[in-house]
Each structure stands twice: as C-alpha cells, then as structure tokens.
Write a structure and sequence with these properties.
The complex is a heterotrimer. By secondary structure, chain A is α+β, with helices and mostly antiparallel strands. Chain A contains 5 helices and 5 strands. Chain B folds into 3 domains: 53 residues, Uridine Diphospho-n-acetylenolpyruvylglucosamine Reductase, domain 2; 114 residues, Uridine Diphospho-n-acetylenolpyruvylglucosamine Reductase, domain 3 (2-Layer Sandwich); 104 residues, Enolase-like, domain 1. In chain B, helix 10 packs antiparallel against helix 11. The chains are: A alpha+beta, B alpha+beta, C alpha+beta.
Chain lengths: 164, 328, 777
Amino acid sequence: MKTVLSLSVNGTTRDDVIPDNMLLVDYLRENIGLTGTKVGCDGGECGACTVLINDRPRHSCLTLAVTCQGARIETVDGLSRDNRLSALQRGFDEKLGAQCGFCTPGMIMASEALLRANPKPDEAAIRNALAANICRCTGYVKIIEAVQFAAEIANEIADEALAS
Amino acid sequence: MEFMPQMQMHQPTSVEDAVSLHGAAPDGRYLAGGSDLLVNIRRGIEQPDSLVYVNNIPEMRAITETSDQITIGGAVTLRELSGNSAVAEHFAAVAQAAGEVAGPSHREYGTVGGNLCLDTRCVFYNQSEWWRAANNYCLKYRGEICHVAPGGKKCFAAFSGDVAPALLLFDAEVEIAGPDGRRRMPLADLYRNDGMDHLTLRPGELLVAIHVAKLTTSISSAPIASAYAKSRIRGSIDFPLAGVAVAMAVAGGKITDLRIALTGVSPLPFLAKGMDDFIGREGDETCLEEIRDKIRTQAKAMKTTTTPPHYRRRVAGALAQKLAASIF
Amino acid sequence: MSTSEQDIIPVQSIGVPKPLVDGPEKTTGKAMFAADFQSIEALVGRILRSPHAHANIIRIDTSKAEALPGVKAVVTEADCSDSYGVLPIAMNEWALARGRVRYRGEPVAAVAAINVATAQAALDLIEVTYEELPAYFTAADARADDALDLHQEKPGNIEREVDFDLGDVDQGMAAADLIREVDVRCAEVCQVQMEPHAAYAEYDPGRERLTIRPSTQVPFYVHKMLSRTMGMADSHIRVIKPHIGGGFGSRTETLQSDLIAGLLARKARGTVRVVLSREETFITHRGRPESHIKMKVGMKADGTITATDFSVVQRGGAYSGYGIVTILYAGSMIFGLYDISSVRFKGFRVLTNTPPCGAFRGHGTVKTRFAFEGLIDDMATELGLDPFAVRRANLLVAPTMTENDLLVNSYGLDQCLDWAEAASAWKVRKGKMGPNKGLGMACSHYISGASKPKHWTGEPHATIHLRVDWDASITLLTGAAEIGQGSSTVMAQCVAETLGVDMSRIRVIASDSAVTPKDNGSYSSRVTFMVGNASIDAAQNLKATLVAAAARKLEIAPEDVECLGEVFRGGQQDQGLSFDEVVMEALKGEGTITVKGTYDTIPESWGGKKYRGAAIGGTMAFSYAAQVVEVTVDPYTAEITVDKVWVAHDCGRALNPLAVEGQVQGSVWMGMGQAMSEETQYHEGLLLHANMLDYRVPTIIESPPIEVGIIEANDPHGPFGAKEAGEGSLSSFLPALTNAVADAMGVRATDLPLTPDKLLELLEKKARDIKASGRAA
C-alpha cells in the first residue's frame, strides 16, 4: 500500500515513499511543504489546486500521487526563476489579478499552461483556459488583463534572461 | 468531512494485465482520469480496496482512423477527443460534446471511457457520508427510500455524461474486456434504465475502446450534420441539466434523416423515438416545434438536481429545436 | 544632490494605481493562509455535527472516543465557559451545542487526533442521544401560532420586529399620481469565499497561553469570544491573522471553528489544526437571508417619489448572529440614496432551523434595493419616463440629513448617472436593441463604516502605530484585517502620501494582537475611511517629529523646514537633509520613534433616535453607484447572457484607482451571481447546495466585461476625501439585470435568482396571456 514515488517537482528530482491513497495535493502540501497550492473545495469544483503535470493543468485534489510516477510537476511555488517573478506572477500582481490570493496559484498555473501552448491568446482563449477556475474577488476582469499583460511581457522577460 | 480510504494501486500496461489484476481484487475499481471516481471515493460513495489505473495502457490511449471507422481508446482524454480533427470531421457532435464536459482542466484528464461509464447523479446521492447518513441514505446506496420519488422502488439518478448521446447518434459500439475475454456491443446496450445499476458491464469488465463507423451520407446521400448542446446554469464546469445531440441530413429543403439523443434527463442516455416521422418534412417552424414537443415528452427528468425537472424537460425540447434549426 | 526645486518633489502615493503591498506573496505561493501552517506535532481537529434540524441533546458520551489510541482531546459544551455571539445583546450561540441543536450540521463535539483517519474514527465513536423536536425551515412555519420557540427568550421565533413610520406616508400616497406595489422574493445566498474556514491553534501548556491563527475578518472579536468561551484572560490569548482568502462578511463574526480550535488545543495541550471542508464551510454559512419583501411606492407624474411603504421578512436561521442589524439595515437604508421622506417600514427577523445567516457584502441593503429599483423602473415606464429621468427627479442635495437622521455630506449620484448614461450610449441605444436584447439600469449606495461600533468602549474607532528605527524604514502597525480587499495598501498609501515618501519605505504589519493596536475588523466598509484617517493622523504626528529633528539639525525654526518627503530643507538654496539623516537626528536622546494616530467619528453621523435601532445606517459618508446592464436572452432556453456592464461608483477620492476598479468589478459580479445563479436550497434543513457544483458561483465564461467609471465626489471627512468602494455597487446589479430583462422580453422578474427555469415560466406565461387576450379580442 506504499510506493516509492520518483518524480520531478519544480525542477528537483525526488524519491518519496508515499501511501497509494495519497492525493497529489496532500503530497505537495503536507509531505513536501509546498503550500502554495490551495484546497478550496471537496474535489474538482474550484480549480485552486491546479498544478502542471508535464506542462498541462490538472486538479491535484483529484490526482493520486502514485499516478505521477516519472512526471514533471510544477506548482506556483516554483515559477519564479532566479528570484524573479514570472510574467504571470508579475501580471497578477501588477494588474490586480489577485485580490485575496487564494485562487491565484491555480489561476496562474492554468494560465501558465495556456501561455506555454499559446503564447498570444486572445480573450476567448483566456476565458476558455480558465473556465475551471473559480475566483470570488475579481469578477475575472482583471484576471483576463493580468494574463494579457503577462503574454505581452513574457518575451521581454525571456530576452532579459538571455542577456543576463 | 472526508478522507481517502486505504487502497492499493496497480498500474498495468496492458488490458489483459488490468483485467487479471482486477480479477484478483474484486472489490477494486478501474481508475482512468478519476474526475468522477475520486470525488465519489472521497465522499464514501465508493469504497474500493484497490484501484487498477488504466491510463498507462497504450492501446487505450489512442485514436485510430481507418477508411471506414474511427476507434477511440477508452482512456483517451476528453481534450484529446474534442481536439481530434478526424472525429470533428465525421462526428462533430462527439467532438463538441467532449469539449462541453465540465471545465478545461477536467477535460485534461477526464477520459471518454470514464464519461461513458460515469456514475448516475442525484442531489440526494452526490453528498458527503455525513449528509447521506443524516438523510437516512437512499435507495441507490445503503438506504431504503428514494428521496426523489418516495414510496417508489426505482432509482431516478440521472446519467450525466455528455459524450454518450453524441456517440449514440452514430450507432457506436463499445469494446469490452473482461475475465471471459473481449466482446463488442452497441453503446446503447451498455446502459439500462435503472439509476442504481445503469451499466450492463459484468464484474471486472473494462471499457477498452469505442468503435464508430464513418457515415458520411444518409440513405438519401445527403450529408449528415450533427451537433451537441447542453443546458446548464453556468457556462462551464456544470453537468448537463439536459444534453441533446442531433444528427440530421437535409436534401432539397427536406429532412432525409433525423436522430436525436438525450442525456441528463434519465438514468441512461438514449435515442429519442419517433424521429423518423419527420423524414420528408420541411424545416419550418411547425416542424421544429413538433420536434421540440416530441423530445419534451421523452425527457422525463425527475427532481435529481437543484434545478426543477419542469425546466429540464422543456429545455431538452428547446435545445433539440434550436440545434435542428441551426442545422437547417 | 541637486537643490533645484523642480527635481525634488514629494512622492505621490494617492490617486495613482498601486499594486497591493502584499501582492507578490500571493502570486508566488508564499502567502500563508490558516491551513498552510503546519508542524510535525500538529493534531488534526475534526467536528461532529448534528444530523438533526431541531433536537434536545439528552446525552453525549465521549468515553469510547477518548479511549481510542491517537486521540488527544475530545471537547463538548462542557468545555465551554459561556455562549458567544457578535452582538452584545444577542449572544445565544455556543461553540458546541448546549442542550439543544437547532440546525443540521451544528457542531456538537470535536476531537483532536494524530491524523485524519483517527480523528474520523473518534467522531464515529461519540454517542449522542437526541430527542427530536419539530423543525421549521421557512419563516412562515417558524412564525405559526403553534410553533415551538427555538430560543426561550425569543417568543414566536421573532429575533427582532422593526417598525418605523416617518414623514407622512398616507399623505404622500394621496399626493401620488401613480401607486404601484411589488411582491419580491430573494433566495438566501452564501459568500463562498475561496478559502474554506480554518484555524491553527497552539497552546503553551507551561504558561497556559493560547496563540491562534484563524481565517477571520475580525481578529479582535475572535479574541474576545475565545476568552469568553474558554474562560481565559484576554491577556493570555494571542490572535494572529494570517493571509485571508476572502470574507465578504462570512467571517465578520467569530465562527465555531475558531473557538473549537482553541478549545481542542487547550485540552490537548498542544497544537491543533482545524480545516473545514467546503461542505462544512457552507454549513457554517452566515450568508444573506432569504427575504420576502412587499413594497408600495407613490409617484408623481414627473417621477417624484411621494411615499414608500414596505415590509421585509427575513429567514434568519437558528441563532441571532447579526440578525438585528440586518433587519434594521433593510429598513433604514431605503434612505440616503434619493430624496425621499415619507416611509413606513415593518420588518421581521425570524429564527428558523437552518444555518445562521450573517452579514454579507451590502449587508441588509441588497434585497430592499432590488425591490425598490425594479418597482420605480416599472412605474417610470408606465408614466412614460426614462429610467434615468425618474432617478434624476429624486436626487438629494448634499450636505443634508435624511428623514431618519443619516448624515449625507457628499453625493455623487448625479455624476454617476451621467457617466453610466454616456458610457453605455443609453440615449441612442435604449429601445433600439433588437429582439431579445435589452438595457437596464439601477442605482445603489452603501455606508463607509458604521459610525457607532457594536462594542462601545469609548476608544477611538481606529488606532495606528508608526515606528521608525535606525534603519529609517517606517513600520506601520495596524489591527485592521487585510482580507484581500487591499486595506494594508491603503494604509501604506495614506502614510506615504502624508510624509511624501516612497511606499517602499513602509512595511505594514497587520493584525497580531501581541504587536498591533486593536481594531474592530474589516466589515461595513469601515477600514479605508476610519483606519485611513487614523493612518493620516499617525503620519502627521511622525512628520512633526521628523520636522522638529530636521529643524534642530538645520538650526532653523520648525515652521521654516520644508518637508519634501525624502528631503528636509530650510529653503531652495539649502542642500537639505536626507530622510535617513533626519531619522538619525530624531533618534538622538529619544531612541526608536513610535507615534500613534487615531480616528473618531462625529456624533452627527451616529444616526437617529426616531425609532428603536435607528442608529443602524449611521455613517460618516455614503458611496453611490449607478450601473447599466446589457443582456441577451436565448429565446429557446431562456438563458440570459450579460453582455456588458457599465458601472459608475462615487468613492470620493480614489486613493488607489486600480484597487477601486477591482473592488467595484468584484461587487458588481457578486451581485450578478446572486441575481442569476446562486441560491442555497434545503431538503428538510439539509443543505442541497453544500458544494461548488450545486452552489453556482459564476465562472469566467458567463462573466461579462465590467467597465468602471470612478466618480470622485470627495467627502469632507474622508481620508483625502475618500469613501467606500467595495460594497456600494453590488446591489444595483440585481435590479439593473431584471430591468434589462424587462426591456428585452417584456416580463418583470421578482423572484431571485433569475435562473432560466424562472424566466422560461415568465415567458411562457406571457405567451399564454397574449394568446388569451388575442382570443378575447
């Protein structure tokens, strides 16, 4: 009933012994202390726990950790590179896409998946990509603006990273 | 007020291994995406002692196209299905329905097999263990009474998968693997009209794939167009209050073929009866209203959702009317 | 350093868009919410809840649970020293039910154990014997003559009956050219803040001290209720507010989970984490009550309102909570928006066997506003008046005092109307929208904090401490609860602006009772107004200290010191002193600088005495809003699409236009949820909606673009003229939506939420009526 889970979390390879019934969100939050990922509902209804598995968004509250064997997991805790906010982290901050901040980790990860697949999304694409993520503060208006802003500055940040 | 029970996980890479692992632990369950099953496990509705994870089985992960048919692996995700160009070309309603399931993140891991085998739903059933205990449980699970229709002995929990009605339009077949080997049957035969036990799968059986024959034209050689629409209060995430799939061919301004399938309004998805009556009709307002009325009478939604059944019946008809109008 | 005047200007922090001071924590996942605290020894706290809606508790036997290995504590009402509540006059709730349970899901016992499975197993071992009682799930049933009283001290299950009759309603009705009535029902709604309730409690057994991190908007109230419930000295409790995942009023009172965490930690003599499920968070409730409103309005042919006569019945749930205040607001807040003087009101707050209601964003005002704005819209149509014109016919002129003695010092509703009308191109588009499309509008307002605190102690309304030490950073200490609304940012802005320094000099430490001054909390939109003013006061005091030091160093008189924020100098020719140099001078002989700022409301704002409870509604300033909603209705399915919203909000000076926009958009959108999809539903008192599928918070798909017009009718008492921004534009969405649907489809919706099933019924009824009248003709 226990398994050695070998995977990569935010770029770091790990091996952990975990019970088979452990949800990915509990593994991340309770076992390895990455509390950036949030739990807002009792299963798949709010999107706050969204993480990336091999670049795609997924509810970590409805994913058994043992099924992530060999996978590349990314959470909001690992998005900043070299102590710089990612484009989306800046966008959600500067454009007020985050008010209380509880849906924000899931929103940012769902948006991250979108921008990796579609670096220049139009508004409809943003809405469709975030349609499983509930926010209770913003009415979504500034979340859309935050993603648009992030898409604009993403290239800028990439250029700077190359230069440095 | 929930937690995950102790379970053992198996991750086979072949259908045969999956079936034999399941056979060794009959109280287990097959797990694909988990977007429905894991919620039910957390709520104590399902209490398997083991899970057989089928998403690592290559055969179940593929969509293959031949000249006359398309085969969809049971563990193909809804996102893959909705984005598949061959499916969209030949079975537009199927691609649309897959794209309408829940929300985008759910479709990333929710599978077509899972959507076809989705447990039936009811507001008296999809609740926590504390809730159901406080309500003396229900007919579908651990209880003696149905809160939807007290006094009756029938469970009305509604099948709420979006993809099934779209596949029913095209006479899809499902390939099943089990302890006795593989078998194929029409998708329609996968279901029975019983909310407590709506699937005809035998113990240990696994839905491996769906086969759909290409039907580029109807009997009259007119091209068949199809579409799916669902009613829900919000624009995303929600299960269908009623889901309607329509396939229609029109030649010379007249209907030459019409099929309509429904979901969300009864314990099983089903093809509506009497649609042949419309063959030869012109798509005028009267005809569309008759289609609406005919669907409405067959959509026998019960009080299984917080939205009143009255509306779900009417909106099923309205969606049929709207989709038929859009195809004309 | 250059000394030319042009290049030394104080930094402007007010009136410019500012990201939140705690934004990066939230976007990087570093922000710690209550459920994020953990330690290896933390126990899991779980709550046993009543399966019954109304029952006497005959016996609770916890012995088997206590004997289960891994169980560290079991608590019941026997561990509680007293009841609790939010209003001093109505504290009738217990952290764990005492003697009787009054709603399904009410906490009865709780356990702390080494893990979830053990905690759950322990709950299953607690034996409770109940004697079931008749239960009442509607206000009407609870008010029936033969109904059993939920609380002995509340006969007839009436929490509070409110009556007032101001001006001359009968004469007003007699003077009207048109009198119309409406009967309105609005479903109960719930805040559904994204973070489920949680509390992390650490008990220090050596010192008998409790430290707790609760998810609350009101750390001070939680502190008071912990000491009351636990029978502990206030001084032995420390309440630290972590990051809060929204509130919207659900956390403006102490919740059982906060108290239970404290009780369990003490009994276990350790650390306990209580994290509620979403279902339990729904059960905890404190949302907006189901309301039934009957309203009659008299109007002159020119749109002037001559009289208003209305009643409100609220289904309040099983305990008092904020109920008395909610029903008082439902009456008093008819005033303050328009120039009306003759109003008769009858209100009933009813106790029922459902989870307790509370204070939801727009507290008490929303459903009354919905009824009124829909009714006058229909009357305008009947009189051939434009909806904007009928509002303009009833504008107030500030400064004024309303008939129920509410102070109105600033009033931007006229400008809000102008903006919304122009931005939506109302004049050219209204009436020409084409089939199934419509435009509707409505107005609303809200208070900038209740002027009289619930707990009257004689203390100032708000207190701020500023501390400056050798590193020349400014530490702002506040008890005000940052819950995502941006209160910490507003305070930093107020201090930075007053001093002329950059906001980066300021570090805000919010809500740690061991460190920060007391604050009543984040509710009734009080923080910007009250705490903002206290921040300005504190900054002015700090500035005086720094100017005195600069004068000493520059050897000039303090009045000759020019403070340019980062530079203090004697005049244009003077090289001047940097901020750091001034701080070093100020520390000489004094040590660390600590200054205080306070704010108090003026007695004129305390509301009146014309009827019992007339103080409720009293505020220093009202915000105003007008909005236009554009809809398209699907004629097949009766689904409504909100295409766009234009909303003007008068928040006085917009301290942070970015945050104002965010608050206004959030308010309008929350109004949309209530208007279109959200409602609680019960099956014999059992929540049918206790998850985020059946309780339908709107998704991004159906959420419209919301264009915000900021109107700045500055208030003379507001911080830099500011008023509230986070609540006032919620309630006008509801009537603007139904007015737009009326415009599009010719039907009047009076039952919210206006889900497609209800609209379809209205459309079918209209079709039947047309058919019938056709036959008759």
